[in-house]
Amino acid sequence: MKKTIQKNNQDKLELEKILLKSNDFENLSFTNEKTKIKFCFTYMSTLIDEKILQDNVLPALLKEEFQQLDDVKEIIPISDVQISDNASDIEQKLFNGYVLLTIIGEYNKYCFFAAQKEVGRTINPPEVEFSVIGPKEAFVESLDMNLNLVRKKLPIKELIIEELSVGALSKTKIAIIYIDNVVNTENVNTIRQRLEGIQYDDIADSSYIVQMVSDNHNSPFPQLLDTERPDRVSSSLAEGKVVVIVDGSPHALIGPTTFVEFFSSFEDYFLNWLIASFFRLIRLFSVAFSILVTPIYVAVLSYHYELIPRDLLNALVASRRAVPLPPILEALFLELTIELLREAGARLPTKVGQTIGIVGGIVIGTASVEAGLTSNVLLILIALAALASFTTPVYRMGNTIRFLRFPFLLFAELWGLLGIVLAFCFLLVHLIRLTSLGRPYLEPVYPLRKVDFKDSFIRLSFSSQGHRPLLLRSKRPKRVDESDAKKKKDIDE
Amino acid sequence: MNPVIPENKKISPFLVFFVINSMQTGVGVLGFQRIIAKSAGYDGWIAVILASICIHFVLWMMYKMLEIAGGDLISIHTFVFGKTAGKILSSFYILYFCSLAVTTLRNFIEIVQVWMFSDLITFWFALVFLILVIYIVYGGFRTITGISFFSIILPSYIWLLFLFTIPYANFTNLLPIFNHSTKDILLASKDMSLSFLGFETLLFFYPFIKRPEKSKKWSHLAIVFLTMIYLYLAILTFAYFPEEQLQKNIWPTLTMWKIIELPFVERFEYIGIANWCLIILPNACIALWIASRLTKQLFSVKQRISAPILAVFCLIGTSLLMTRDQINILTDFVGQCGFYINFMYVPLLFIVTLIAKKVKER
């Protein structure tokens, strides 16, 4: 028996030896005034709110009477006090903001109490998914605060929050959230399995997780929806989806998701369904426009002049008369300029970024037309296409859309319209093959599920949203009990 | 005997509509009018209906056989002829489907070369196209069904655009009705049946259908739908072209597009032909998928290996066909094969299967 005690103490001593190299490691001893028992605090000063220690814990321990660690629990005025006899807990607890309390002479017993220092942002309005109407709070980096935001929105016992830690070095805490009696357990199992299978030492953000748990790692398309809005998370949970929140990341991940979901902004649900549907259709149209317009320009001007009616062709040719470059080079030149501006704008502080935007947009644009490097028409088209690509509510998808333009351009240069169709076929097949947590990505179009159209390209009124998406195969497919739904009245009744 | 196909790799019965339809719609739609008018003149539309009725009958026989043997064509062959003879017979189908893929692809390239790019190099286009096909085949049958689905849905607007020809149409061209002999009309029906080829693929993907008995309705509907399309096109074409002019037109459907004028599009046939790329895509995919699956079942070669190998053969075949005459010879040959397979061999097999069933029951 004695041997194990000694061994345990050795563990602690060895740990201390390593920790002493760090400047923020503290190991302080005090003596109780009444019983003259010597006790010792061990903690990392950078993680601890020392005020709690000084004002609440220390006076109590100095003045109140206690004999052994088991008595301490009642004396310390803190709720989170744990007593353990396992030395392997020490490291994990110390680095999570606990203070280790030991009594000198009493081996193999460790008391931990929580005294975390809360450092971090407070809740701010969403920046990426800003909405004019609706709640204005966004997730922050702290997992606890994020979970608090979600819990407050869904105050039911069925909301389950599982926690696991991933990453050999970063020990990142990851929470899997779902509503137990709504979700499809298969989806939860899939995501849990994949999270547990992650083999990487440092998880810096939820973006790491998106890439690691995707069904297809080589696809440019995001396969989990990421959002910074707690309201979007709670409504996804209510639909029966699974949410993953990563400690240190203000973006929650939602799955399984579909292609069209990336074009629905959460603000759509705050607007009347007619208006919301209209906006969604505009967004989808702008995506198609953004991808196709430059390739079509290149295809038509390189190969199919005849396709354009004479009047329109006159305008096109007139604007291109002074341009010495073939259409593809002209288009690539402008596309790259836009991408340059975007990259520069993203890296610079807001104020400088604006200036750069004006300089780039107006000066370079006008100058390159006047210098005869590009045509006016193409300048307009490319600017519109760039604008259109920013209408996608999910930033990640916007990047994909901008990327897709380049292969389309190359195919258009190669075989004109035929090339564009061929590139489109490649894209289509890729999307057909893609899955999100094993669920088809192109649903509800393929596989065709009529009922799921109610919230895809368009969003119908809430009265027709009585069923959860078929895609999720939820345990409770119905959201509302329709038995007491109102019967429609006839005229003049 | 047959390895069980996992439930999540199967397709819902209604998707059979799209698979059969997309396999049947190919390059034939662009030029069938002249062929039926050759023998039956402007009574050719009767031939469309006659051919369609025959096909319903053959389709019914296929379903009966498949139900008896429980599986695909290979199981029917084994059921009737035993293992070795069955294998030999089935292996002819690999050849048939490969040449079907080559015919479709080469004919499409020919159209592109004549109408859009005279300098399109067959080899390079076929290479990219076949890479796409292999990518689809690797996705399995569900992906193929998906591309079939989109190849019917997305270009469906084209059918409406033919209405642009109505102001220029003269429907009295069709009169008088029945001024051709029965023999002429039957000959035209035989020619027409070639445009319907493709439904024989049912013999191979039947095990991939969930609740196959429910798919019957959909596959017959597919034939009805296609008949409607053909009738619609045939009548519009006959009204649009005088008979002598039609005889000089290899691709009347394409010529009809020339009349379409939209505020921003002058020559619609360019868009139409580019679109046709999506329409013929499932043809090649299904053909190559069946060929590679047969290779797997008969010679136990993995589909992942056999599909690219067969695609290379298709690529070589496609690039070797240089002139219009060569293409015509192959097209006619494959057409004849298809005719004999579907309208001679299948009924024969049907009767033999019934006999074999009777014998085995005793």
Automatic annotation (TrEMBL), chain B:
Domain of life, source organism: Bacteria
Subcellular location: Membrane
Keyword Transport: yes
Membrane-topology descriptor: Multi-pass membrane protein
Keywords linked to the UniProt accession: Germination, Membrane, Transmembrane, Transmembrane helix, Transport
Pfam families in alphabetical order: Spore_permease (PF03845)
Bilayer-crossing regions: 12-32, 44-63, 84-102, 114-137, 149-171, 191-209, 221-241, 273-292, 304-321, 333-356
Repeat recorded as keyword: no
UniProt record similarity statement: Belongs to the amino acid-polyamine-organocation (APC) superfamily. Spore germination protein (SGP) (TC 2.A.3.9) family.
Protein name per the record: Spore germination protein (Amino acid permease)
Annotated organism of origin: Anoxybacillus andreesenii
